[in-house]
From TrEMBL:
Listed name of the protein: Polysaccharide deacetylase
Name of one Pfam family that matches: Polysacc_deac_1
Domain of life: Bacteria
InterPro entries referenced in this protein's UniProt entry, alphabetically: Glyco_hydro/deAcase_b/a-brl, NODB_dom, PgdA-like
Domain (NodB homology) ranges: 34-268
Source species of the chain: Streptomyces luteireticuli
């Protein structure tokens, strides 16, 4: 079902920032070395200011999916994001590996991160994005329990919001599906994420792709959606520690300019996009 977009608009676009800072690799590494932590320093001191300046130049509102650890470690940066008019969404307590948690621990960390949002941001977030874009069997129910309006972690569509369902998996019988969730899914894609393509984690993530190839991928996804998915949404995910780098932010600005050539595109936060949906 298409979104009910503002008059004259054909397609919604969200540029979401995962503001992981120094906890970005907690789900991957048992110990964060000084070299890894320095990537988080770059995110805070260089990448975030560059992204804020870029978004201000093109008047783009963004959703910053932010772990609780980033909120309490770098509150001045959070105030800067808010002062620029952007949205802060939940993104884990410390960028934990959600599927490895037990349900009790997952619920405890949800309570912890929400408390930090209330303390630093001044209110609870309306939306959630799972660290590393993965759920446990309990996650969807926990999001419903804590009253989230939307999630942006799953990949069951490409250009359309939808209601995710819990699934009981069987190997030799059909899978069982639960009822559609009260939480609206605003889908993501690894293809529309700067991190796996451009970053590099020794022994874990080769990355380091050419920006020409990544730009072509982003452009083609946008062009297809604009031509074929009226009332749809394109969701791009960037990180300050990746897209704040000189070559990557030049590519991001090039993508924004490409999108801006279309007068019927609406840049919006994920909560604004959620509010344009009706079942």
């Amino acid at each position: 079902m298409p979104l009910s977009l503002p008059d004259g608009k054909r397609l919604a676009v969200d540029i979401g920032v995962d503001f992981d800072a120094q906890c970005a690799f907690n789900g991957l590494m048992p110990r964060l070395s000084p070299a890894v932590l320095s990537c988080g320093d770059f995110d805070v001191e260089v990448g975030t200011p560059r992204l804020l300046a870029l978004f201000e130049r093109y008047r783009i509102p963004a959703t910053w999916c932010t772990p609780g650890h980033t909120l309490i470690t770098f509150p001045d940066s959070i105030r800067s994001v808010l002062d620029h008019g952007h949205e802060i969404a939940a993104h884990g307590a410390y960028h934990e590996s959600v599927p490895s948690l037990g349900e009790r621990e997952e619920r405890r960390l949800m309570e912890l991160q929400l408390g930090r949002h209330e303390k630093v941001v001044g209110r609870r977030p309306r939306g959630y994005r799972s660290p590393a874009w993965d759920f446990s069997d309990a996650t969807l129910g926990i999001l419903e329990e804590f009253g989230f309006a939307w999630d942006s972690s799953l990949m069951g569509r490409d250009f359309s919001p939808y209601r995710p369902r819990p699934v009981v998996v069987h190997r030799e019988e059909p899978n069982e599906f639960g009822p559609p969730s009260s939480v609206l899914e605003l889908p993501v894609s690894w293809y529309m994420d700067d991190f796996p393509a451009l970053d590099h984690v020794p022994g874990a993530l080769p990355g380091l792709m050419s920006t020409e190839g990544v730009f072509a991928r982003w452009r083609d996804n946008f062009d297809y959606a604009h031509e074929n998915e009226p009332g749809g949404v394109v969701i791009l995910t960037v990180h300050g520690l990746v897209s704040g780098r000189a070559h990557a932010i030049m590519m991001l600005e090039r993508f924004i300019r490409h999108v801006r050539r279309h007068d019927d595109v609406w840049f919006a936060t994920l909560s604004e996009i959620h509010d344009r949906w009706s079942d």
